[in-house]
Amino acid sequence: MRVPLLDLQLQYQSLKPAVRAEVEAVMDSQQFILGPKVEAFEAAIRQYTGANHAVGVSSGTDALLAVLMALGIGPGDAVITSPYTFFATAGSIARVGAEPVFIDIDPGTYNISVEELDAYLVQACKRGRDGSLFSYSGKRLRAIMPVHLFGVCAPMDEILYLAAAHRLEIIEDAAQALGADYPSGSEVFRAGAMGDFGCFSFFPSKNLGAFGDAGMVVCRDESMAAKVRVLRNHGMEERYFHSMVGGNFRLDALQAAILHAKLPFLDGWSAARRANARFYREEFARRGLDNILTLPVEPYATTGAKNHHIYNQFVIRAPRRDELCGHLAKNEIGSAIYYPVPLHLQRCFSRLGYKAGDFPEAEKAALETLALPIYPELTQDQQRYVVDAIAGFYAGASSR
Ligand SMILES: *Cc1c(COP(=O)(O)O)cnc(C)c1O
């Protein structure tokens, strides 16, 4: 049996007529850049996330970049984030000339550790006379960029509290978490709509995927939304008059139309991913593998929040991870390592002065984690086959 990590064909086959009609409508209109399809999708995302404003952009990376530019973050500034995330999170900070400051992760959720964040803000960083904070290297701390990794929200209550106490902006990297719920008191908020800004990616393999690159910025403040809107189009308000230096961060009408057609299915897909996660848990327990593997935690499962984890990835920790990965590949089962090298150890960031041992949890996660197939159309037969293969791997190991 073949079990790919992700199979986009199955979803496409079920959506083909609806999506093709949207594509045809855009082609008939011959309006490809921004316009009514983009505006309609922005409105839909605003409604879906509960955010005040939404601005369609060209990718998740450009969403982060446009927000940093809108805040005027650049050389002399620093932004706090996680070392255990996709490169774009810290890459965008470096690209505007600011310094990424890494804080270790929580080993359960793989999201930024609020204990470590608090310790850094209260003790470790430098303090100016007016109370503003500076990194070790003297860069002014401007923002926290929490990542909702794998589809579960970072502890936003604590992050919001710390950001307010230290006058920092919050830019949520919600690229893996569109639709993820975060329970706060008696209320439930959605990923991206809790901080000052939220950034989404519609890269094809994300839980809501375009037919190419696409992204979205959501934000609380109207004037900031207006600024991102101008920045995504070369800082141009009136044609050929440029008030700022922006970029070409525009969302294509084709992508917006396709995504808008797919959005109504997202909650169903998230529920299917959660059901698959539950089935893995049952099967791993039945086979006694839940003692060997560490399964994903669901910190908000008992709160009543529906989309408490949207399982953009189902990530386990496994002994002899690399060998297991090879064993699965031999059995035609797809798996992936998110992420093999934490960002503080990437060569391009060597100038930041971090070294191995600085963030033990991120480094440990990079050595131990493995993502298994979890896509909505995955069958129970396929899941049993995956669990069988993993059981076979560890049984073989113990009998040797
Ligand atoms: C995918 C991703 C991005 C970048 O999104 P693109 O659309 O690929 O540019 C940023 N951050 C995280 C955490 C991601 O997973």
List keywords for this structure.
400 residues; alpha/beta; Aspartate Aminotransferase, domain 1; 2 domains; 14% strand; binds pyridoxal-5'-phosphate
Entry summary:
With about 400 residues, the chain is an alpha/beta fold.
CATH topology of the largest domain: Aspartate Aminotransferase, domain 2
Strand order, largest beta sheet: 1-11-10-7-6-2-3
What is the strand tally? 13
- Mind summarizing the main beta sheet? 7 strands, mixed
Q: End-to-end distance, in Å?
A: 26 Å
Mean pLDDT: 96
User: Can you tell me the overall shape?
Assistant: globular
Query: What letter string, H or E per element, gives the SSE order?
Result: HHEHEHEHEEEHEEEEEHHHEHHEH
Proportion of residues in helical segments: 25-40%
CATH architecture of the largest domain: 3-Layer(aba) Sandwich
Description:
The chain is of the alpha/beta class. The chain contains twelve helices and 13 strands. It has helices at 8-29, 36-49, 60-70, 87-95, 114-124, 156-165, 222-231, 253-262, 266-286, 321-330, 360-368, 380-399, and strands at residues 53-57, 77-81, 99-102, 126-127, 133-134, 140-145, 169-173, 181-184, 187-190, 197-201, 215-219, 314-317, 369-372. Strand 2, helix 4 and strand 3 (99-102) form a beta-alpha-beta unit. It starts with 7 loop residues before the first helix and ends with a helix. The structure holds pyridoxal-5'-phosphate. Pyridoxal-5'-phosphate (PLP) binds at residues 59-61, 85-86, 88-89, 147, 173, 175-176, 201, 203, 213, 215. Pyridoxal-5'-phosphate is lined by residues 59-61, 85-86, 88-89, 147, 173, 175-176, 201, 203, 213, 215.
